[in-house]
């Protein structure tokens, strides 16, 4: 998101310059970056960088150009040099044949160390020295053609083609990138991804891997662990890296502390000292984002800069001070945006809604059997009987109730957002346990009594509860034990399974109790919920600086505990772990409508062909699918599922109702009598 905030897209490309010693690599770069040339420049030792910006199609493209020594003995860790490069200039000297003959070897090295497609250009430098030319233009062209490279002859001395050669490579990379549709999200994501895994070794012993955060400037780390290099760590002197360093840093990772000066200043100092990366120890456990202010866009930081927490930093510092050898391996694995956990989540949600809808239909015959002495006398007035029976255990939601519900849910959400303390979460968790327990109890007893009629008939008299069936008691005890177990283990990695089971039981139960009377109330409720969801996910950042819904769903920052108000499945293929989640509301709200429709279909003897239920189930599944599609398209940004679910369920109902001319009936369902009564007095008035 960060690059979107500035309203301008940014790209960062790494380009490497390679070729034998003294072919003029450093001079080509200094000519391009600073328009400088040095007639007696020294051979490069180690690695140097320059960042140059240019604009392509209104987008800012930054090229980070790396220059290293042509001489083998001065070259820095080769794989680190090539890592992440998307462009390369292979330079030879037209006055020295041997440098041209080495080109093949340089290309091989490039091939071995780079993973992505690299835009490559063959550069014949020193074309100002025509009189002592040893390699003809045609030879250069032929080689470039054979290897599939661009070709150009340059002179760093008189500037011929220097700019062109770099810009052609940058443009080619840009075209490659945009052609591959990497342009917007994926590629930007790669640049802004800021979580890093830090593996560490103390005296060769592998310690616990911890997480670091990279700055929004500096180079990216490889996403692949195999491509990362293990480097020794050196404590900087001074420890804050604010003034020039006296410690020897080349080829190692600098470890510094936060404070005293800007991150960017530290970065530049460390880079000037030759560090391969700078690791800053934060002054607290949390990791803050390190940004550079707008003014610093000219910044030439080309090493990765990252921050680690106090505790991990201090542990490393201590080991170094004890003269132990500390090594770090830094890499930034990427999360897949979609995980197959999504499929299970989809199945779970659709399954819950389906089961909740058909539940009473498939369990009621047996219920009737139990209560037949009560029902049979009234069987003649069928409608009354079912309605009377229903009223005992169900709650019809009224239009007013729907509005009040959404308002109180919003209030609750804001309260949660501001006061999400551990005890608040604890209370909600207990409520969740009770709800889940009750749901589970109801489901199990219903299922058992349906299988065996007599099971539920043995009763005992209890002091407070009165006449209770033994079955019910046993099941209750079981559910209680399960709830307690889950409560105690709720912070474990497998607690999600229990949470899902309880959540599903609770929702099926809620959907049996709460009922929508007709489409009028459904429309009010779902529309309110629709705006509620969109507001709290998308619009709340405008007021609260972050999405209230997403913040609440993520849970408390301090304890890492979240409120069990969603179904979740771990993202197994994600190196960062985490969960795919769906809120209870995304199941309950559409669920209420679908349950109503199922009842409507049954009460009006509608089958598969003329009913609404199959359509709505399809609509719900489609809506969820679209939600995940939205998640994917928006690069993992939390989605208000109801944005998709409401049109896909309520929308379908209304459209079908209109087409079938049944919308009126659906709209006023169950209120036909009162509305007729309403009509009667009006002529009098
Ligand atoms: N005439 C002429 N001389 C050049 C040109 N480019 C570089 N030189 C000279 O060639 C010599 C080597 O240049 P560098 O840029 O240091 O070469 P390099 O490829 O960076 O060498 P290493 O760092 O050792 O790999 C210097 O003396 C430069 O002045 C050019 O275009 N024309
Ligand atoms: Mg050089």
From TrEMBL:
<dbReference type="GO" id="GO:0033619">
    <property type="term" value="P:membrane protein proteolysis"/>
</dbReference>
<keyword id="KW-0472">Membrane</keyword>
<keyword id="KW-0342">GTP-binding</keyword>
<dbReference type="Pfam" id="PF02225">
    <property type="entry name" value="PA"/>
</dbReference>
<keyword id="KW-0378">Hydrolase</keyword>
<feature type="region of interest" description="Disordered">
    <location>
        <begin position="365"/>
        <end position="388"/>
    </location>
</feature>
<feature type="transmembrane region" description="Helical">
    <location>
        <begin position="521"/>
        <end position="539"/>
    </location>
</feature>
<keyword id="KW-0547">Nucleotide-binding</keyword>
<feature type="domain" description="PA">
    <location>
        <begin position="229"/>
        <end position="316"/>
    </location>
</feature>
<protein>
    <recommendedName>
        <fullName>PA domain-containing protein</fullName>
    </recommendedName>
</protein>
<dbReference type="InterPro" id="IPR046450">
    <property type="entry name" value="PA_dom_sf"/>
</dbReference>
<dbReference type="GO" id="GO:0030660">
    <property type="term" value="C:Golgi-associated vesicle membrane"/>
</dbReference>
<dbReference type="Pfam" id="PF00071">
    <property type="entry name" value="Ras"/>
</dbReference>
<dbReference type="GO" id="GO:0098553">
    <property type="term" value="C:lumenal side of endoplasmic reticulum membrane"/>
</dbReference>
<keyword id="KW-1133">Transmembrane helix</keyword>
<dbReference type="Pfam" id="PF04258">
    <property type="entry name" value="Peptidase_A22B"/>
</dbReference>
<feature type="transmembrane region" description="Helical">
    <location>
        <begin position="464"/>
        <end position="488"/>
    </location>
</feature>
<comment type="similarity">
    <text>Belongs to the small GTPase superfamily. Rab family.</text>
</comment>
<keyword id="KW-0732">Signal</keyword>
<keyword id="KW-0449">Lipoprotein</keyword>
<keyword id="KW-0645">Protease</keyword>
<dbReference type="GO" id="GO:0042500">
    <property type="term" value="F:aspartic endopeptidase activity, intramembrane cleaving"/>
</dbReference>
<feature type="transmembrane region" description="Helical">
    <location>
        <begin position="641"/>
        <end position="659"/>
    </location>
</feature>
<feature type="transmembrane region" description="Helical">
    <location>
        <begin position="494"/>
        <end position="514"/>
    </location>
</feature>
<feature type="transmembrane region" description="Helical">
    <location>
        <begin position="612"/>
        <end position="635"/>
    </location>
</feature>
<dbReference type="InterPro" id="IPR005225">
    <property type="entry name" value="Small_GTP-bd"/>
</dbReference>
<keyword id="KW-0967">Endosome</keyword>
<dbReference type="GO" id="GO:0010008">
    <property type="term" value="C:endosome membrane"/>
</dbReference>
<feature type="transmembrane region" description="Helical">
    <location>
        <begin position="337"/>
        <end position="359"/>
    </location>
</feature>
<dbReference type="GO" id="GO:0005765">
    <property type="term" value="C:lysosomal membrane"/>
</dbReference>
<feature type="transmembrane region" description="Helical">
    <location>
        <begin position="581"/>
        <end position="600"/>
    </location>
</feature>
<dbReference type="GO" id="GO:0098554">
    <property type="term" value="C:cytoplasmic side of endoplasmic reticulum membrane"/>
</dbReference>
<dbReference type="InterPro" id="IPR003137">
    <property type="entry name" value="PA_domain"/>
</dbReference>
<dbReference type="InterPro" id="IPR001806">
    <property type="entry name" value="Small_GTPase"/>
</dbReference>
<dbReference type="InterPro" id="IPR007369">
    <property type="entry name" value="Peptidase_A22B_SPP"/>
</dbReference>
<keyword id="KW-0636">Prenylation</keyword>
<feature type="transmembrane region" description="Helical">
    <location>
        <begin position="423"/>
        <end position="444"/>
    </location>
</feature>
<keyword id="KW-0812">Transmembrane</keyword>
<dbReference type="InterPro" id="IPR027417">
    <property type="entry name" value="P-loop_NTPase"/>
</dbReference>
<comment type="function">
    <text>Intramembrane-cleaving aspartic protease (I-CLiP) that cleaves type II membrane signal peptides in the hydrophobic plane of the membrane.</text>
</comment>
<dbReference type="GO" id="GO:0003924">
    <property type="term" value="F:GTPase activity"/>
</dbReference>
<keyword id="KW-0325">Glycoprotein</keyword>
